[in-house]
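Lab notebook, bench 4. The sequencing result for the construct came back, and we need a structural model before the next group meeting so we can plan mutations. Quick request posted to the team channel:

Model the 3D structure of this chain.
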Amino acid sequence: MPKNLFERYQPYRRRAEIAFWVIVMALQAVFNTAVAVVDAGKLGREVPLWQPVAWELSSHLVLLALVPAVFAFERRFPLNLATLGRNWAWHLAGSVVFSLVHVAGMVALRHLVYALAGSQYDFGPWGEKWFYEYLKDVRTYALFLVTLLGYRLFMLRLQGEARVLDAPEGAAEPAPPAPEAAPQRPERFLVRKLRREFLIAASDIDWLQAQGNYVGLRVNGHDYLLRATLTDFLAQLDPARYARVHRSYAANLDRVAEIEPLDGGDARLHMRDGTQIPCSRRYRDALRA
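Done. Here's the predicted structure in token form:
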């Protein structure tokens, strides 16, 4: 079966994402440098070209380095309709840390460049200058998040949301189980993705990941995204085979090849399909059991 656009994009996805941010930051640095040179000319100031180049490159290099940190922070404190109320304060605090790191990093780079040029850089009074920079940085931080959420929505649209197919219309309702009966768990799931239907055996699920209002299933090297919570979906799986190993991950114990201990009591699970997922200290003892 020929691959669709989403599947053809996957081998190049990481490189495309990195290239996007590098190009955006480079173009922004060039534009801001040109603006700084023009503004200096209007004010009648003679500024060597290397100085505005150093100002903008130092700023945008640090911003580029902070992109992965912002995205990792959003994964820890996701922003969606269900979590916005409890996570917005974390991101407000995160924007302050983001700005402090950005300003400290760019000032350090400017001092280095100026020293190499035989000159001295003066940032000015820190309190006043940092507040001015924060007003710009908080907008940059918000723009990073908007871009991330927009890209994530685009990828979901491109991929197509998988879902467990509903029971056929007119099917008889199953009789309620007796109070002492064990819960019935499906052995297979029929899901629809990219206008195609797939029959997935529960035992073929390698691991699961909570992704906001979705749960991602890793099945024989393929990913399926279902609108469900990790807790609700785990309730449909055999607890003797599937165990929660992290706040956002659960694993098929038959597919765990190795448990790699990490500092602080955490661990990393090496799965038989070659992927790795985290295991937090909170769940590690239960995993051993």
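Residues 166-173 have pLDDT under 50 and may be disordered.
Will bring this to the meeting.
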